[in-house]
Amino acid sequence: MRYLTLGKTGLRVSEVGFGGIPIIRLSMEEAVAVLRRALERGVTLFDTANLYMDSEDKFGRALAGERRRLVLATKSIKRDRAGVEADIHQSLTKMRTDYLDLFQFHQVSQEDDLKTLTGPGGALEGVLRAKEAGKIRHVGVTSHSLEMAQRLVKMDVFETIQFPFNFVEEAAATELFPAARQANLGILAMKPFCGGLVDKARVAFAYLRQYPDVIPLAGWDTVAGVDEVLDLYDQENVVTQEDQEAMARYRKELGDKFCRRCEYCQPCPQGVLITPAMLYGIVAHRMGPAKAAEFAAKTMETVKQCIQCGECESRCPYGLPIAETIQHHLALFEEHCRAAKITGNNS
Predict the structure, then answer these.
(1) What separation in angstroms does the CA of 82 have from each of 98, 119, 281, 333?
(2) Domain that holds residue 190
C-alpha cells in the first residue's frame, strides 16, 4: 500500500479508500469486521455521508480507538446553514470524533444548489464556521455533473473533488482531472465498480491504477472483497488484453442503459425525482432490497406522478429510456416493499 498527499489538504492517505454505502445492508457486527479488515490491510481513508443511513454509526463503532491514524470524510446534502450545522453535529456524534478531516458538499450538480449553498445563510457559511471551531479541517465537494465539476474545481473554495470515475465513465480523465491537478485539489473517484454494476475487481482496478494520483473509494461488504482488491495493490499493475476485452464487453452492455447522474433530465414538471429513481436498481443491489425500499421510499413514490410526457428523455444526452426505466424500478420497489412488509406511504 502506498500513501499519497491528498492535494492541498496535505493529508496523507492510502492509495485506495473505503466507501461507506455497501455496509448499509450489513449488520453492525458484519460491518465492523469489514471495516476493521480494511484498516488492518492499510486503508486509512474512510469516506461516508450523513445520507447513508447507519453507515456513520458503523464507522464510529469499527474505528473507535484508531482516530489518529485515520482520515475520516463525510458529506451533507443540506444547502442551508442550519441544516448543514445539524448534519455536522450528527456526523461527529455518530462517528465518535470531535473533528472531521474532510467535509464534502454532497452532489452539487445543479446551479440552484450552488447558489443556495454559497449564498447568504447557505451551507458554506455553516461549514466555514465549523472549520473555524476546529470541527472540520478541510472542505471538499462531490458532483455527478461534469460541467458543474469543471466549475467547482476553479472556485478556490474546495480542497478536494469527488467524481464518478471508472472504465465506463472515463470523461473526467481528460475533461476534469487536469484542471483539478492544476488547482492542487485532491482527486477522489467514486463508483470504481460502476455503482455496483461491475463484479470483476481485477478489471475495475487495472483501469483505475493507471491514474496513481486518483484515489478510488471502494465500496466493500465482505472481508473477502477487501482482500480481493487490496491483494491487487500488492502487485505491479498490468492491464492485459483480457482486461481490455472485458472492459469493452462491459461498456457495450452498459452503454445504452447506464444513468450517469448528470441531472440534465431534471427538474420534472410533475415533481418526479428522476435521477434517484433511475438509480433504484443499483441502490437495491448495493444496499439489499429491504434497506433500499426504506431508503428510497420518498423518491419512488414520486414516480407515480409520471405522465410519460417525454420531456426528460428529450433532455437526456445519452438517449436513455427514462420513463420505461423508472416504471420498471417502481414495480421493483413495490415488490421489495411487499417482501419487506413495508406499508403506508412506503408501499
Answers:
(1) 19, 13, 33, 32
(2) 3-247
pLDDT exceeds cutoff 50 at 16:
yes
| 148 shares a domain with 27 | yes
Q: Into how many domains does the chain fold?
A: 2
Q: What is the pLDDT of residue 76?
A: 97
| 268 in any annotated domain | no
The β-bridge relationship of strands 45-47 and 12-14 is: unpaired
Single pTM value for the model: 0.84
The CA angle 215-216-222, to the nearest 5 degrees, is 135
Rounded-to-10 torsion of CA 306, 312, 318, 322:
0
Calpha distance 18→38 (Å, rounded): 8
- 305 and 198 assigned to the same domain: no
Q: In sequence order, what are the beta bridge partners of 76? A: 105
Confidence band of 1 (pLDDT split at 50, 70, 90): very high
| The C-alpha cell that represents 120 in the structure block | 447568504
- Residue with the bigger pLDDT between 319 and 207: it is 207
Q: Is residue 260 part of a domain?
A: no
Residues 30 and 155 in one domain: yes
The percent of residues above 90 in pLDDT, for the chain, comes to 82
> Which residue's C-alpha cell is 414520486?
302
Residue 258 lies in a domain: no
Is 58 in the same domain as 207? yes
* Dihedral, CA of residue 145, residue 209, residue 285 and residue 295, to nearest 10: -50
Asked whether residue 203 falls in the same domain as residue 305, the answer is no
Q: Long-range contact list for 274-280, CB < 8 A, 24+ apart?
A: 274/312, 274/322, 274/326, 275/144, 277/302, 277/303, 277/326, 277/329, 277/330, 278/320, 278/322, 278/325, 278/326, 278/329, 279/195, 280/326, 280/329, 280/332, 280/333
Do both 101 and 32 map to the same domain?
yes
What would the pLDDT profile of 182-237 be if each residue is shown by its tens digit? 999 999 999 999 877 888 999 999 999 999 999 999 999 999 999 999 999 999 99
Q: What is the CATH number of the domain that holds 27?
A: 3.20.20.100
